[in-house]
Amino acid sequence: MNHNVGWGLIGASNIAREWMIGAIRAQPGNSVVAVMSSNAARGAAFAASNGIAASYTSVADLLADPAVDAVYISTTNELHAQQAIAAAAAGKHVLCEKPLALTIADGHAIIDACRQAGVVLGTNHHLRNGASHRAIRALVQEGAIGQPLFARVFHAVKLPENLQGWRVNNPAAGAGVILDITVHDVDTLRFILDAEPVEAIAMTPRSTLATELIEDGVMAVLRFGNGVLAQLHDAFTVEYAGTGIEIHGSAGSIVGRNVMTQQPIGEVVLRDSKGEHVIAIEHTNLYDHALASFNEAIKGASSPAATGEDGLRALAAALAVLESSRTGKSVLVAV
């Protein structure tokens, strides 16, 4: 039997238009029934161009729509907590964009509100849904590289002009590369290593794209509880670096190229005593996988691909990176 879920979009965003609407509609019984934008004209145009029946200018009005069973939140970062908590109070399941919140306290408040309301909470950390990252996790978990020792993530890109805006000029909205990209790196490493980051140290260069108070590049090192040291390079200002992830262990290395992306692309290579082997991967849409997992969670069959707790732990490590970059000191990750 199909499990009918009517989705309300809180935020008429690019990611909703480009990825999430299609992923929602790809799930049996799922439909997008409403969108909320504080800009009435933008919301109406978004609804019309995407075949959405209802457009609202307030979260309260969208949550009052009986056709809405679940919400996808993709507003600016400082709004996530209040909107997620309101959705939970209205009995709606919540899939929230990263970062889950801007503070640890707000992250806990979202988790508590959803638990008390008995609704599903997921964080939209899309990368762990990629076939490449799931293959890397499986290799690590089965001992293909022995004991994991080091990791490296390179996720430096050129932020497209249409996505800049608040991400590079509004500190109050939770702008900057650390809360936009580093938080994804952390979640991906947590997923692959099945371990928690416990300490961070980081440095940022002088901003060249963002305003002076916002970091548009960072290099960081995370220490994980299992002893792995992970180096991260994230930026909004580098156009031709490509992206990737490497996991190096006592008996081999895994190298993923062009895998830190929304696109279902990239290659994974295993290097060990037998040589270099390309791992066979059947790529699928990352957001389809995330929505399928969320639907299973609504049915009570499993958990979302990334839970609220996953979102909180990724946020905690990103905040430690941010604090370290500003103080010049090593910072413990506190959840």
Q: What does the model show?
A:
A nine-stranded mixed β-sheet has the order 14-13-12-11-7-10-9-8-15, covered by helices on one side. Helix 1 (14-25) crosses helix 9 (286-298) and helix 8 (177-193) crosses helix 10. The mean pLDDT is 96. It is built from ten helices and 15 strands. The chain has two domains: 5-126, NAD(P)-binding Rossmann-like Domain (Rossmann fold); 127-287 and 315-332, Dihydrodipicolinate Reductase, domain 2, CATH 3.30.360.10. The longest helix is centred in the C-terminal third of the chain and has 20 residues, at 308-327. The protein has 335 residues and is α/β, with parallel strands linked by helices. It is globular.
Show the helix and strand layout:
Elements (H helix, E strand, L loop, with lengths): L4 E6 L3 H12 L4 E7 L3 H10 L4 E3 L2 H5 L6 E4 L6 H10 L3 E4 L7 H14 L3 E3 L7 H11 L6 E9 L9 H4 L7 H17 L3 E7 L13 E8 L4 E7 L8 E6 L3 E5 L9 E6 L2 E4 L7 H13 L9 H20 L3 E2 L3
Parallel strand pairs: 1-2, 1-4, 2-3, 4-5, 5-6, 7-10
Antiparallel strand pairs: 7-11, 8-9, 8-15, 9-10, 11-12, 12-13, 13-14
CATH class descriptor of the largest domain: Alpha Beta
Query: Main β-sheet, in a few words?
Result: 9 strands, mixed
Give the integer mean of the pLDDT values: 96
- Indicate the overall shape: globular
Given as residue ranges, the uncertain stretches (5+ residues, pLDDT < 50) are none
Strand order of the largest sheet: 14-13-12-11-7-10-9-8-15
Radius of gyration based on Cα positions: 20 Å
H-E order: EHEHEHEHEHEHEHHEEEEEEEHHE
| Number of discrete helical segments | 10
Looking at how many chains there are and whether they match, the oligomeric state comes to: single chain
Question: What is the domain tally?
Answer: 2
Query: Whole-Å distance between the termini?
Result: 40 Å
Which fold name fills CATH's third level, the topology of the largest domain? Dihydrodipicolinate Reductase, domain 2
